[in-house]
Amino acid sequence: MGGGGKNLYMKIGLLSDTHGWIHPRLFDHFAECDEIWHAGDIGNIETADRLDAFKPLKAVYGNIDDALVRTTYPENLIFMAEETRVWLTHIGGTPGHYNRKVLPAIYENPPDLFICGHSHIAKVMYDKKAGFLYMNPGAAGYNGFHKYMTAIRFQIDGNNIHDLELIELGERGKIILQDH
Questions:
Q1: Residues pairing with 157 in the sheet
Q2: Total domains in the fold of the chain
């Protein structure tokens, strides 16, 4: 904390593809975060409400989300975090293979940070051609085809993104479901 109680940076907890289930350890991993960002396939409004009650939530809907989630959260969310322009969506593709729905805007007005989910594969890389940092936190939920449950934690200080950590929550299928 800096002078006047203002953070010197923002600490973000990033997840995607919870599919209606939150790993109990996510609350420990995100305890020091200022916000949680969810890149879609939330699963149900109760999951979003539970995250939002814990920390301020920015989220987009995904392809499995129902009408209530879709009317509560947008398909694309573009916002400023510190001095960093962020674009959050669910089906965004990967560098060199972006979804055709976002492709023109990525090059016409690129964000500083492009975040998506959907693939269930954690990936972070700088896209030199587009000129931004790409992040996909993988899948944090129990349901899906992924082998490991993952999320990401990072900090934003002005326009500097740093201290990025991949959080491995364990092998999908190896957790005791009654803990949730």
A1: 160
A2: 1
pTM for this model (two decimals): 0.90
Cα–Cα distances in angstroms (integers) from residue 63 to residues 16, 32, 69, in the given order: 12, 30, 11
Tokens, residue 8: 């010197």
Q: What is the 3-state secondary structure (H, E, C) of 32-75?
A: CCCEEEECCCCCCHHHHHHHHHHCCEEECCCCCCCHHHHHHCCC
Q: Which domain holds residue 96?
A: 9-170
* In-domain check, residue 3: no
In this predicted model, what pLDDT tens digit does every residue of 107-164 receive, in sequence order?
899 999 999 999 999 999 999 999 999 999 999 987 767 778 999 999 999 999 999 9
Write phi, then psi, for 109 (nearest 5 degrees).
-145, 70
